[in-house]
């Protein structure tokens, strides 16, 4: 992947390749407003982090509004070397025609936690859609956590996002995602047009460890609350633990044991393909109950893998 500055001006840099036909079908030009690629519609964040003087430091940073970060902070007493990055998006959230791309390159031995400052709202879209690409490269011995706050899809919203991870065999990666039903106080529970989220993890040689797609739609008679999807539940979350520090069956056992204490949510824990780790699936009635269970699983994984509990992220 080239990192020449000129390449970032090319729409191919921030436009997802191989978009599903269902997404392409709603990609009509934006009329009467800012179109795809206009100023303020393309958010880019490109970071390289590496160990330096006992902590992980930002070695290179490129950002274009609406995406930006401030300097990393170090708030985990158990891992004082870990850089915590709070990603911010100027404006209230995604609107039609927005294109965002995040690249995080973590050198061998680094320790990084990337999160958002607040939940990500996706507003209604009469034309086109919004996309977000997240590319994480994790070197040998590195620890990377990518745990953004929940996505809140508003009425008529359309979001395609793809998270691609390249993880060295000796690295540890913790990924999480949470989808809320929408602005429930505005009577917007599961009335979005399309939410499409892809996750894939590969080795540096390109070999695929696993890939997963979450597709939910309310358009053309779709019903996320059908028995084969969310059922009676409103909130869905996933936590991936990719590591070789502990074998996959042991990782599954410790997560299951921890989640017994979360009776208010429906929980599933299983091994990831290629024995690369474990995945937790959560369904629940409220954001609070699902987020508490997600934190419980994250804490159990951290204690086992890093010998330190989850820190206070100071988000209020």
Automatic annotation (TrEMBL):
InterPro entries according to UniProt: UreD
Compartments where found: Cytoplasm
Keywords per UniProt: Chaperone, Cytoplasm, Nickel insertion
Pfam families (UniProt xref): UreD
Highest taxon, organism lineage: Bacteria
Summary of the function given for this chain in its UniProt record: Required for maturation of urease via the functional incorporation of the urease nickel metallocenter.
Family (UniProt): Belongs to the UreD family.
Subunit relationships: UreD, UreF and UreG form a complex that acts as a GTP-hydrolysis-dependent molecular chaperone, activating the urease apoprotein by helping to assemble the nickel containing metallocenter of UreC. The UreE protein probably delivers the nickel.
Protein name: Urease accessory protein UreD
Organism: Pseudonocardia alaniniphila
Taxonomic path: Bacteria, Bacillati, Actinomycetota, Actinomycetes, Pseudonocardiales
Gene that this polypeptide is encoded by: ureD
